Structures are given as structure tokens and as C-alpha cells.
Amino acid sequence: TDYMLCCAKENAISAVAKVCGNLPSGALNLGDILPHWLSWLPIVNEDEEAPYVYEYLCSLILANNVHILGENNSNLPRIVRIFAEALGSEVLADCPALIKQVSVILKQVQSSPETWSTILTMLGEEEKAVLEKVLN
Fold first, then answer.
1. CB within 8 A of 42, min separation 6: which ones?
2. Tell me, what DSSP letter sits at residue 28?
3. According to the model, what pLDDT value does residue 75 have?
4. According to the model, what pLDDT value does residue 72 have?
5. Which label site among 14, 24, 103, 119 has the fewest CB atoms less than 10 Å from its CB?
6. Helix, strand, coil fractions of the chain, as percent rounded to 5
7. Largest Cα–Cα separation, the chain
8. Distance between CA atoms of residues 12 and 35, nearest Å
């Protein structure tokens, strides 16, 4: 079924995150892997794997990882959309500390009004509503 395929995909996304996050520095060329990994997100069904994936994503963002953020933070719109979709899906509902960490990151992005307004123009109404709820 589609749901089983989706869960298998989300488990694979999590497995890649676990490999990347747990191997010694330099064991993999993360510059080749992380942009692809980011393109596979969001995870919105697999609530057992989602916390690990989003914790890893947050850690990469907080470390200013250029492979995730993109040159001149060009991936921020994609990242904000990923967070909005994840938060809207309730996949992180049992992870209040992680939701707080995501909201801190979103508030950092929001602190640049020009960047934030540009990102908001790229989102749907449902995604905007989710972000408004998390940020207020």
C-alpha cells in the first residue's frame, strides 16, 4: 500500500541520518549526501523515526552546516516548509523539547523580516497557520 511505501521511505531517510550522524568525522563526504537527504524530507508519518531525523536536522542547522543551509542560506525556504509540514502532521506531537528547538530556529529565521516575508510568500495558507501557531 501507499502508506507502507511511505513508511519504508521515511525509515530509509532516518537510516541515512543515523549513519551520517554517527560515523566519525570525515568517514563520509557529507557534502554529497546531505543535499540529497534534505531533498527527501519531510517525514510526516513515521513518528518513531521523525524525532531522530528532526533532531539531526536541527543540529546541522545550529552548526551552520552549509550543505543543509545552502550557499547564502538559500535552503531556508525549503527548511521552513519542511518544519511546517512536520509540525502540521503532528508527527512530533510527543516531542515538546524538539518542537521548542524547531521554534527557536524558526524565530531566528523570523528575526530577519525580509527573509521571513520572502519565505512566507512561498508557503500555503495551512503551512502559514502552523507556523503562526508554533511561533505565538
1. 81, 82, 83, 85, 86, 89
2. S
3. 97
4. 94
5. 24
6. 75, 0, 25
7. 43
8. 15
Structure-block grid coordinates of residue 112 = 530577519
Predicted local distance difference test score (pLDDT) of residue 20: 92
* pLDDT number for residue 1: 79
Calculate helix-pair angle for 96-110, 76-89, nearest 10 degrees: 150
Tell me how many degrees the CA angle 58-121-68 measures, rounded to the nearest 5.
25
Position of cell 519565505? 119
pTM of the predicted structure, to 2 decimals? 0.94
Cα angle, residue 97 at apex, residues 112 and 28 outer, rounded to 5° = 75
Query: What letters, b where the CB count within 10 A reaches 16 and e where it falls short, cover 83-115?
Result: bbbbbbbebbeebeebbebbbebbeebbeeeee
Residues of the chain with pLDDT under 50: none
Q: What is the DSSP letter of 111?
A: T
Cell digits of residue 129: 497557520
Burial class of residue 119 in the structure, from the number of CB atoms within 10 Å of its CB (0-12 exposed, 13-18 middle, 19+ buried): buried
Q: What is the pLDDT of residue 73?
A: 94
